[in-house]
Amino acid sequence: MKVLVVGGGGREHALCWKLAQSPLLTKLWCAPGNAGIAAVAECVPIAAEDVAALVAFARDHAADLVVAGPEAPLVAGLADSCAAAGIRVFGPSAAAAALEGSKGFMKDVAARAGVPTAWYGRFTDIGAAKAFIREKGAPIVVKTDGLAAGKGVVVATTLDEALAAVDDMMGAKVFGSAGDELVIEEFLDGEEASVFALCDGTTALFMGAAQDHKRVGDGDTGPNTGGMGAYSPAPVVTPALQAEVMERIVRPTLATMAGMGHPYTGVLFAGIMVTASGPKLLEFNVRFGDPECQVLMARLDSDLLPLLAAAAEGRLGGAEPAWSPDAALVVVMAAKGYPGGYAKNTVIRGLESAAAVDGVTVLHAGTRRNEAGEVVATGGRVLGITARGGTVRQAQDRAYRAIARIDWPEGFCRHDIGWRAVAREG
Fold first, then answer.
1. Is the pTM of this model over 0.70?
2. Tens of pLDDT along 94-125?
3. Which of the following CATH numbers is that of domain 2-94: 3.30.565.10, 3.40.50.20, 3.30.200.20, 3.60.10.10?
């Protein structure tokens, strides 16, 4: 099979790294890719959001499967355009991708499906949003309805913080049109986890669980980010909890979307909060998480390609992915200043030495090669140092040993990725 992967981040490097191992693969492209992806796939200079150019490339090069990495091209209709051109695609239609493209739509679908989740309100008026906040009190969560690259969420511990978030999002438009509508919802207390399912429109197949670290600083301090690290398996997702999430959250959503005329295919990522009264849905994403994808691919023993093809073709029934008993952990290295402003085009050295640590794979998120052939940083989150080990502690030790070999003064990372699982291991 000839495969085109769309995207250029750490998630896409993990997908390309895994797909490149498939005996079924004859050609792998990635658009636009990055310096690390170039080692396993041919990088094509087409932006992930340029749907027309992506479809034209896939058609002209007779791609057998297009694999959508990020959410933006899916919300923009990549899957629909591929289908119209007769190209198989792994990823939901634009109507189904609204589960991530509109948080209000997602909450409405969850309510219709009877999925356990936080109470909520949808608002397009600043005054009404503020009145709702004053009525409900703090803590409370304020979200942009639209896509904001994982950053349009404020968990407000005080009324003033919540009201200021409304002014920022809807008044000052700090997230642009994503803040035209807000979703304001109940604060859920507990432990977060990410649960993934492959879907073919009717069948949902458990595809692993992980735990992310959203805050930028050690000890879960500082602002939220796109994710500073992750590990899998997540001990909080016991076999019983996994079964409950699939039966009470994922499958009812799949059935509801099909009933609405928008059957869901691709990967469905359920962000859940494990509360005292059981798992509750925080949000759905319509793609693999980043950095969760990195640790899932590290643990997946099965060939990824036939699984993605089966989901795209509506024939997941009977498929059963095999997982390594090992733990996997990824530490994100980011440019200093992230998630605020940061310098670009700083040189990174020592990557080969880091990759030589036992069990370690160095995945690239925001990189390119300069004219001298050096790897330079181009984004906020730049590298994902991924390690496997017999325990989370061993994987953690290997990842940080590899990081110690990287020479990048302009970069930083958290030093406590995996702390919950390590504490459980004793």
1. yes
2. 999 999 999 999 999 999 999 999 999 999 99
3. 3.40.50.20
